[in-house]
Amino acid sequence: MIEIITTRLKQGHRTTKFPLESPTLPGRYRGRPNVDPSKCADGCQQCVDACPTGAIRVANGLTLDLGKCLFCTACGEACPQGAITQTQDYRLAVSRRDDLLLKGGEFRLAGRMRDELYRILGRALRLREVSAGGCNACESDVNVLNTVGWDLSRFGIQIVASPRHADGLLITGPVTENMKFALEKTYEAVPAPKLVIAVGACAISGGPYIDQNETHNGAQSVVPVDLYVPGCPPHPLTILDGLLRLIGKIKTGERALTP
Amino acid sequence: MTGDGKWITTRQGESVDLAAIPCVEPNSFAERIIDGKSHGGRLAQLFGRRAPDGGVTLYAFLAYDSDGIVQVCSSRLAAPAPGRAPEYPSVSALWPAAQALEREIAEQLGVHPVGHPWLKPLRYHGTDNGAPAPWGQFNPAKTIPGDYPFYRVDGEEVHEVAVGPVHAGVIEPGHFRFQCHGEEVLHLEIVLGYQHRGVEALLLHRNATRSAMVAETIAGDTSIGHAFAYCAALEALAGARVSVHAHAIRGIALELERLANHIGDLGALCGDVAFLPGASYLGRLRGEFLNLTLEICGNRFGRNLLRPGGVLFDVDSELADRLHKRLKSLQAEVLQVLDMVFMQPSVLARFEGAGALSEAQAEEIGLVGPAARACGCMRDVRHDHPHGVYQFSHIPVAIETTGDVYARAVVRWLEVQRSLAFLLELLGNKPAGKPFAPLGAFKPNAMAFGMCETWRGEAMHVAFTDNTGALDFIKVKDPSIHNWFGLALALRGVPISDFPLCNKSFNLSYAGHDL
Predict the structure, then answer these.
(1) Measuring CA to CA, which of A42, A198, A242, B361 is 20 to 30 A from B11?
(2) Does residue B60 sit at the A interface (CB-CB below 8 Å)?
(3) How far from each other are the two terminal CA atoms of chain A, in whole angstroms?
(4) Nearest chain A Cα distance for residue B7, angstroms
(5) Is A140 found in the same domain as A218?
């Protein structure tokens, strides 16, 4: 017993101050890429060929689809003009699929859920997680939010065991053919009104498994999605930032956007 | 090991001419493998590869762990007459270690291993050429995993419990079917395949970044482990010399991955026996190790770090010092918390005796990794088939003998201590050199393998080239394919309420199994 108490004293209080304070991320952390179409004058296609998932288009102006991006930086290294650079911005979650198309200019972060949903779910959001072909990296970093370091439940968000007890689904993985039916059944089991959160490149677009016969290019192919959290896998901070935006605890534009 | 041309002997880092691999009649294939077993071989891999003429070549890999070698032999099944499945006498009938590997052969290629004790789908997909599998034609409109007759125990007081594919926790999907008498589990059948994504074909993708990222997502919690094996196989095919510096960085990343997962598992085991201090502290400490990997390569799971030819991120002496300092303080913290955990009678009472496997069972079903070492099997790729930095610095193999949840926890505890010591030493005297050099051309008509002791056990990638020197086949093995059957066996006669604890003590990969 005494060693439990001494360990408790040694461990102290370890919960992050986020969102009041932003933790510092190490210098090599890869956040949102920055796209500058004005530097891509000739459309040389080298970034397109380098990209593993076909996330980049150069016709009609350089566009990077953050939903397909694996944050490998192959595009930036291939570009002779420096049109694609890496930022340290961990805030990546958006409400609409189109908002993930980076074309330069403003990046619109996720907003609060619809008013009628917010009245019911805003202060106590219960989620059921469904891994539909996820490799266990996104799953692990969703799980991490329940550790004392992040303490998700202090925001009124909880992962529950049954879809019947949930207000929405948090989906990871590209949605494999063999999980499609189970995902549909789980979605049906959630009482309305309900939300869907897609976490990770796989759940948004298929990620490294995009356009495979065995997979369905993400959650959107099966259910409507309300929040997209890009990354491979997203940092827990990115996931938490997205969830807090969804329940209005962080408001869009609250902090200045970095270029 | 066996000599006289029946097998070809190879080892980590070597490539083999395809023509030099001995070929045996299909009817004697199983016999030859069993002969190898009697000489001390362990079934490391067994798979089939489609030949250009429509036939199938079977390959068997027997590892001789104490000699540090692997022996390979093959068998050719000719293209069958239409409507007839190619067949050969099953290995599993004589050695259960082959059961999942032969189901994979049957499912991928439509080959019938005659006499397999329980031939059933492994991942639920069609064969590569659309021919029926031995259990019938695949129907994509109808077939879902788990929609088939389970093994059933009959009797008035026997009941059945079905769990999954969507579970209560945040974990991957799988289906568990228990036959119970009261609390006691008489039989557990595990159905997987929900995670099947088509990994093996994608590893040949023309975009090299894509195929490497697929290797890193075979099992996302084992990104470094699988990338390690993948790179080792390709580097052996190219005859590449990777710098000692790059090897050291790979070793650092692999041990950080092991630490994060072992510490996370020990925390989760505490959670499953309701010892919350252990669960809380270890759950947070796991993240500290992921953050060290983030420090090295910008991603908590080590994505984009390993590539064939070396590593993409350098660890210079300034970063090495920083990592050393943080590890040193983490070491004190982790070991103190673990000492506290293993002192608790309430924890030990639940761990001891739960879900035990014997050494004989472990050998028979071919267990690997901490689960095998917990049964007393001396087996660790870092020690037996060392590659890269493990050729220069050795980590003692952690062994326990009781084969239960306690033993699996203690093996992890020992490995945490040894990996920490190994890392502190490695970061203290890091050799300098170039972290990356592009690979040259692959040898044509060759085969090479890469093996890695991931935190779950032995991962293996076997790569083949065609006559132009292009990669034309990669066979992936996650340690989970050996160990899932161990979990099913460990549950026999165990109260069903101990299932979460036993499951966590194995903590196997669904995605790695389903590919």
Answers:
(1) B361
(2) no
(3) 53
(4) 36
(5) yes
- Distance between CA atoms of residues B128 and A167, nearest Å: 41
Question: Does residue A194 fall inside a structural domain?
Answer: yes
Dihedral sign for Cα atoms in the order B131, B134, B136, B142: negative
**In a shared domain, residues A165 and A85:** no
In a domain, A109, yes or no: no
pLDDT tens for each residue of A163-198: 999 999 999 999 999 999 999 999 999 999 999 999
A73 chain-B contacts, CB cut-off 8 A: 304
Mark the ranges of chain B whose per-residue pLDDT is less than 70.
Answer: 1-4, 143, 430-431
Nearest CA in chain A to B294: A29
Residue B142's pLDDT is: 73
A26 closest CB neighbour out of B277, B295, B304: B295
What is the number of domains present in chain A?
A: 2
Is the same domain home to A128 and A88? no
CATH number at residue A223: 3.40.50.12280
CATH of the domain at A73: 3.30.70.3270
- Is residue A242's pLDDT more than 80? yes
Q: What fold does the segment set B199-514 form as a domain?
A: Cytochrome-c3 Hydrogenase; chain B (1.10.645)
How many CB atoms are closer than 10 A to CB B339?
12
Note if the pTM is more than 0.80: yes
Per-residue pLDDT tens over the stretch A42-75: 778 889 999 999 999 988 888 999 999 999 989 9
What residue segments make up the domains of chain B, in order of their start? 8-114, 158-191, 199-514
Nearest by Cα to A129 from A209, A221, A199, A228: A199
The B residues from 215 to 254 touching A (CB cutoff 8 Å) are: 217-221, 223
What ipTM describes this predicted complex? 0.93
Residue B144, chain A, CB below 8 Å: the answer is yes
* Structural contact between residues A142 and A127, judged by C-beta atoms closer than 8 angstroms: no
Preceding amide of A233 cis, omega within 30: yes
Are A212 and B197 inside 8 Å of each other by CB? Answer: yes
- Which residues on B lie below 8 Å from A161 (Cβ)? 168-169
Q: How far apart are CA B172 and CA B5, in angstroms?
A: 44
Fold of B8-114: Beta Polymerase; domain 2 (3.30.460)
Mean pLDDT taken over chain A: 90
Residue A120 shares a structural domain with residue A216 = yes
Chain A residues with CB under 8 Å of B454 CB are: none
Rounded distance between C-alpha atoms, residue B232 and residue B224, angstroms: 12
Contact B511 A11 (CB under 8 A): no
